[in-house]
Write a structure and sequence with these properties.
It contains two helices and seven strands, in the order βαββββββα. The radius of gyration is 14 Å and the shape is globular. Strands 1-7-6-5-4-3-2 form a seven-stranded antiparallel beta sheet, covered by helices on one side. A hairpin with a 2-residue loop joins strand 6 (80-89) and strand 7. By secondary structure, the chain is α+β, with helices and mostly antiparallel strands. It has a single domain, classed as START domain (Alpha-D-Glucose-1,6-Bisphosphate, Chain A, domain 4, 2-Layer Sandwich), CATH 3.30.530.
């Protein structure tokens, strides 16, 4: 299993960060430019990654103000799980974005860089959006 992680501190209470992340409609704002054909509800999102794949994701578990687990809603190109873990201390929240993917060596070489870039992009955009609210 390949594990990718990106962590950032956001100057908002954990409840505010959780409320934003718990709704998959908000995740479109976190996506890089190579994501298109986005459709979503509170619990599911479908989109296409340019030159890669179409994905359908759904929330599998929410622990209020602590964690949101997201898994494929349809058969993905490889087994994967996305997770947001939140730790709050009053006015600040540490948000950790984890991507776990079952990749063979060839796939790991091809996609681990783009997945790390995706995780880093999502955490920085999350901080940018919420710190400016």
């Amino acid at each position: 299993m390949t594990n990718i992680e990106s962590k950032i501190t956001i100057q908002k209470p954990v409840a505010d960060v959780y409320q934003f992340l718990a709704d998959l409609n908000n995740h479109q704002q976190l996506m890089p430019e190579n994501i298109y054909n986005w459709t979503s509800t509170t619990d599911e999102a479908r989109f296409t990654i340019q030159n890669m794949a179409k994905l359908a994701l759904k929330v599998s578990n929410r622990i209020e103000n602590q964690e949101i687990q997201i898994i494929p809603a349809e058969e993905p190109p490889f087994a994967m799980e996305l997770k947001w873990i939140l730790q709050g201390d009053g006015d600040n929240t540490v948000a950790t974005h984890q991507i776990s993917a079952d990749l063979n060596m060839m796939m790991k070489m091809l996609v681990s860089g783009p997945l790390q870039k995706l995780a880093d992009s999502e955490t920085s955009k999350l901080a940018e959006i919420l710190n400016n609210r």
